[in-house]
Design goal:
3 helices; 15% strand; alpha+beta; 163 residues; two-stranded antiparallel sheet; 20% helix; 6 strands; four-stranded mixed beta sheet
Length: 163
């Protein structure tokens, strides 16, 4: 959960003596847009060397019954992973940052306020999409609001160290 990720950052801050936290949505987007991935993400492109997204290997999960058949995948790519892959498996962007799009989405510290009149509680933003997402839905600008206390199999976190 985002709450657990923030607890880890607090622990790491004490351990290192440096301020460690999750990135804001803006910091995360800056790192993602620095290099190879633009606003459209990898839609229509072979992303297999740079991102772990829903592809042909993801379909194996459909066949085994692990995923519902209605979850679509990109058939023009094969990234070699059915679920999350080891960090650094795919090429970094031009800033040297790995796995910003795909593999697992990442928690940020940015709050999301539901539209006026909505009964939804305040949430936080996750970014980047995961192995479950297609290239057209995993872009640097895709926001995934979620409750800070919820746990997901496809959302992780990235720590930044502030000077």
């Amino acid at each position: 959960s985002q709450q657990q990720a923030m607890a880890f950052c607090r622990w790491l801050s004490v351990k290192t003596g440096k301020h460690c936290t999750l990135p804001t949505e803006e910091q995360w987007e800056w790192a993602a847009l620095f290099g190879k991935c633009d606003e459209s993400g990898y839609a229509g492109k072979d992303f297999s060397k740079v991102a772990n997204l829903a592809d042909r290997s993801y379909l194996l999960k459909h066949a085994s019954g692990e995923m519902p058949m209605w979850r679509p995948a990109a058939l023009n790519a094969e990234d070699g992973a059915r679920v999350s892959a080891k960090v650094g498996t795919y090429a970094p962007n031009e800033a040297g940052v790995y796995d910003l799009i795909g593999n697992v989405a990442e928690w940020t510290t940015t709050a999301w306020t539901p539209p006026k009149g909505s009964s939804a509680p305040p949430q936080v933003i996750a970014k980047g999409g995961s192995w479950r997402d297609r290239p057209k839905t995993a872009t640097p600008f895709t926001k995934m609001p979620a409750l800070a206390g919820m746990k997901f199999v496809d959302i992780g976190f990235r720590v930044i160290i502030e000077d």
